[in-house]
Amino acid sequence: QHSLRTRQNKKKNPKTLKKKEKKMAILCTTTSPAEKEHEPKQDLEKDQTPLIFNPSLLNLQSQIPNQFIWPDEEKPSIDIPELNVPFIDLSSHDSTLEAPRVIAEAGTKHGFFLVVNHGVSESLISDAHRLMERFFDMPLAGKQKAQRKPGESCGYASSFTGRFSTKLPWKETLSFQFSNDKSGSRTVQDYFSDTLGQEFEQFGKVYQDYCEAMSSLSLKIMELLGLSLGVNRDYFRGFFEENDSIMRLNHYPLCQTPDLTLGTGPHCDPSSLTILHQDHVNGLQVFVDNQWQSIRPNPKAFVVNIGDTFMALSNGIFKSCLHRAVVNRESARKSMAFFLCPKKDKVVKPPSDILEKMTARKYPDFTWSMFLEFTQKHYRADVNTLDSFSNWVITNKNPI
User: Fold this and answer.
1) Which residues contact 5 (CB under 8 A, 6 or more apart)?
2) From start to end of 71-204, where are the E strands?
C-alpha cells in the first residue's frame, strides 16, 4: 500500500482530468484515520481575526480570498456525468415490496436515492424556499443576530470563517434544532422568535411544519430501510420516533471563479439520514464508481442519503457516501437539508438481527451527543469521520 506521501507526489502531474479526479478521491478516502485523528481541525489561530464572508461583496470579486481557494487536487471539474439515482415511489402499492430491494442496492453501493410522491405539501415546500430566500437576502448584520457560537451546531454561519482558516466553503447557512418528542414542544418556532424576534414568527411556523413533515417522511423511509436490511419494519422507526434532528438552510452565492473553490467540501454526513430539497440550480455531486457525478435537481423529489450514524446502525452494510457541492458564476443556489438524528442519549448499536448474520462489530457503541460534539469541537467532517470517531471513542474509553 502506498504511503500518503507517495500518493501526494503522484498527484503533482496528472495526465488527464479524470485521473486527477480519481486520485483526489483516493487521497480523501485512504488517508489513515490514525493520521487524521490527531490532526488539529479547528485551525484558526487564537490571535487571528476571522475573515468576514459577506456574499453581497464577495460575489462580485474576480479574485477571491486565498482562504477559499482549494488545493489543485480537490478543485472541481467542469463537465461530469449525471448519476442515475434510483426512484422510490411512496404512493405505489408495491412500495413495500420493490422499494426495499432498490434501497438495498443503492445503500450498499452509494447510499443515495430519490423519493417521489412523498406526500409533503407543495405549498409548504414553496413557502420554505421563499422564506429561505428572504433570510439570505437580509443584510449581513441582520443574519448575524443568529450567529452560531463556537462549538455549537446551530445558528447562522458565514462559511466556516470563525472555525477554520483554509479550504473554506463558499456558502452561508442557517441551522436549527428540531425535537420530535412526546411533549409536543415547538422548538423550531421558539428558536426563530427567541433568536431573531417576533417579526420572524411566520418563519418559525413554516419551518416547524416543514421539520415535522420531514420527521414523518424520515420515519416512513426508516421502515423501508429496516425491510431492506432484513429487520422488522418497526425497529428503526421506533429507534427514531423521538429524534433530536437538525434542519439546515444552505445558500451558495455567485462566485466569479467557481473553478477555484467549493460550496461544500467532500464529506460524509455524520447524521443518520439526510433529506434534501434542491432549488433549480445544479450543484450536488456524489463520488461513485471512482468519479464525481452530479444529481440533477428535481422539484418533485427529495434527495435522500444515508449518513455515518446509520452506517454504524447497519454495521457497515449501508454506505455513507462522499459528496460535495459546487458553485457557479451565473446563478446562486439554495437547498434545504433535514438531518435525521437519534435522540441524543440513545445508544447507537446495530440490531441483533443484523449482528447475528455478521462475524464482528465494526464500530463501538456511542450516543449521538458524543458524535455531534466530536464533529463540532474536534473534527472537520470528511470521508473518515466515522472511523476517526470510532478510534477516538476506543482510545479515550469514553463512557456512554
Assistant:
1) none
2) 87-89, 112-116, 155-158, 172-179
Q: Which three cell numbers stand for residue 151?
A: 462549538
Cα-Cα end-to-end distance for the chain: 35
What is the rounded CA–CA span in Å between residue 204 and residue 209? Answer: 9
User: For residue 242, what are the β-bridge partners?
Assistant: none
User: Is there a contact between 136 and 249 (Cβ–Cβ < 8 Å)?
Assistant: yes
- What confidence score (pLDDT) does residue 25 get? 37
User: What is the chain's Cα-based Rg?
Assistant: 20
Residue type, 105: E
- The whole-angstrom distance between residue 27's C-alpha and the CA centroid of its chain comes to 20
Per the CB < 8 A criterion, the answer to whether 262 and 327 are in contact is yes
Distances (CA, A) of 146 to 84, 139, 218, 269: 38, 13, 27, 23
Beta bridge partners of 243: 342
Cα gap 357→355, rounded to integer Å: 5
Picking from 104, 33, 109, the residue whose alpha carbon sits closest to that of residue 382 is 33
Residue 247: how many CB atoms within 10 A of its CB?
A: 24
Tens-place pLDDT, residues 4-38: 233 333 333 444 444 443 333 333 333 333 333 33
Q: Which of 148, 163, 248, 333 is catalytic?
A: 333
* Helix (H) / strand (E) containing 4: helix 4-10
Q: Is 148 a catalytic residue?
A: no
Q: Which phi and psi angles does 172 have, rounded to 5°?
A: -135, 150
**Cα gap 390→270, rounded to integer Å:** 12
CA 135 to chain centre: 21
For residues 246 and 337, give the distance between their C-alpha atoms in angstroms, rounded to a whole number: 8
Report how far apart, in Å, the C-alpha atoms of 151 and of each of 19, 177, 201, 372 are: 37, 15, 27, 10
The list of the chain residues with pLDDT below 70 reads: 1-50, 93-96, 184, 397-400
C-alpha cell at 400: 456512554
Cell of 79: 463537465
